[in-house]
Amino acid sequence: MKKLKSAREIPIGTAIEDAGCSREYHTGSWRNFRPIHDKEKCVNCLTCWIYCPDGCVQVKDGKVVEFDLKYCKGCGICAEECPAKGKAITMVPEEKKE
Amino acid sequence: MPRVAAMTGNNAVAESMRQINPDVVAAYPITPQTELSEEFAEFVANGKVDTEYVTVESEHSAMSACIGASAAGSRVLTATSSAGFALMWEMLPIASGTRTPVIMTVVNRAFSAPINIHCSHDDTMGGRDAGWIQLYSENSQEAYDNMIQAVRIGEDMSVRLPVMVAMDGFIISHAVERLELLDDESVKKFIGPYQSVNPLLDTKKPVTYGALALQDYYMESKWQQSAALLNSKAKILEVAAEYKKLTGRSYGLFENYKLDDAEVAIVIINSAAGVAKMVVDELREKGIKAGVLQPRVYRPFPHEEIREALKNIKAIAIMDRTDAFGAGGTPTFTEVTSALYGLTNPPKVINYVYGLGGRDIRVEDIHGVYQRLTEIAKTGKTGKMFEYLGVRK
Ligand code: SF4
Ligand code: SF4
Fold first, then answer.
1. Domain covering B254-388, topology
2. DSSP letter string, B322-367
3. Whether A65 contacts A59, CB under 8 Å
4. Which of these, B337, B298, B304, lies nearest to B321 by C-alpha position?
């Protein structure tokens, strides 16, 4: 575990001086539903990429490739917003993900 | 040569704000503060200041805008009263928690209900634990002087905390008094240029304000804030000493009015302390050893210094222009008695709620309190500890 800083070491007012420190916070540990992507149904509109609050939708050459599970908290917003016919994303309980 | 002027408390504070020439003011009008923010808006409209005046839709937004502007890296002032103060409540600990040194005049006014526009100290006393430094002012002169000192105190690198400057609604805010003003250049020199810490507008060094801190860091953040407030006492005195050199007017943590040989004393804040001091002069002529302790710095509360000043007094009345409902003692009563705790032979203490909603505190009322104190000093019998002064029952 990372050593925690003392009150004298942290900036006043709990300001965060390093940009992008949320990268150190792995929200993936919250997840109990996993987004499963169906490449067949996906039209690559990237709506999921726009809506994902944690930037987990990995896109390559304009196409959805995977979800970054280190940060995906399983909120299901991507699945809810996906406009593809029959939905290209399904939220599956973690214990049934296989 | 100081400029001598006849001004209301609101005029005097608006004038101090003009001289401070802040980068940003975000304020919402509320009686009895309205005149103050209107007057400052006029300075802005007439190009007398360089301030960005943010007209907001509520006090909650006013304080939010102040915190944002301060975090952005600017010197920020605002003002409010009563219900406006209450509407800011959520933001007050955010200002102190983010360590943004916003300076706010609070023109004391009673809380509703019933609706009352006159003076009680409900607002600032209610907000005493919001993590702000609190300075109280007896009259326009003190409000003006406190404002200028507040900028230096709050913005100091060892402090970095917001400061409230309180003065009595109507009694001071709307009464014309003679006061001495500094010239603009002296104020500018005294307060110095604004120095920011982690300004949001510094795009080369991006920072985040107001982020989440959970079980791992919240307590460290609060300890840091608590230490800064407690340690600000030294800076407050240092600034006061420097201000005295400039103006000849001395300020401390509280005013010790003839306490050194006093047998009976009243502890009282803001304008009513003036009445009490006048009564003390009358009593002294009759050979009664009376005194007044008038708190100026309420946060951080100077417990040790107050204990030192009051330890030899036989009977003390602690009087507040507010109640702490259900506590059985007003805020200042609780503070002062805790300051006296541990003395082997502590003074007898009684507690009065007086002057709520602007009710006059008359010379006779104060005489009555000293009479009772003299009786207590003689007999050692306190009687009823907590009482509303002059209420019809
Ligand atoms: S929203 Fe649905 S269809 Fe659009 S890219 Fe994402 S998964 Fe594919
Ligand atoms: S479930 Fe939520 S966090 Fe995970 S990829 Fe979808 S939108 Fe992002």
1. Rossmann fold (3.40.50)
2. S--TTSSS-HHHHHHHHHHTT-SSPPEEEEEE--GGG----HHHHH
3. yes
4. B298
B260 in Cβ contact with B187 (< 8 Å)? no
The CATH class of the B3-247 domain is alpha beta
pLDDT digits (tens, 9 = 90+) for B212-267: 899 999 999 999 999 999 999 999 999 999 999 999 999 999 999 999 999 999 99
* pLDDT(A98) > 70: no
**Residue intervals in chain B for CATH 3.40.50.920:** 254-388
Per-residue tokens: B91: 């933001």
Q: Which residues of A touch B (CB under 8 A)?
A: 4-8, 10-17, 19, 21
* Alpha carbon of residue B22 to chain centroid: 20
Q: What ipTM was reported for this prediction?
A: 0.86
Which pLDDT score is estimated for B192?
Answer: 98
The end-to-end CA distance of chain B, in Å, is: 53
Nearest protein CA to atom 2 of ligand 1, as residue: A82
- Which ligand 2 atom sits closest to the C-alpha of A55? 8
Q: Which amino acid is at B24?
A: V
Q: Using the beta-carbon criterion (under 8 Å), do B198 and A13 form an inter-chain contact?
A: yes
pLDDT tens digits, A19-51: 788 888 899 999 999 999 999 999 999 999 999
Residue B145's SS3 state is helix
Q: Which fold has domain A32-98?
A: Alpha-Beta Plaits (3.30.70)
Cβ within 8 Å of residue B98, ≥6 positions away = A13, A14, A15, B67, B70, B71, B209, B210
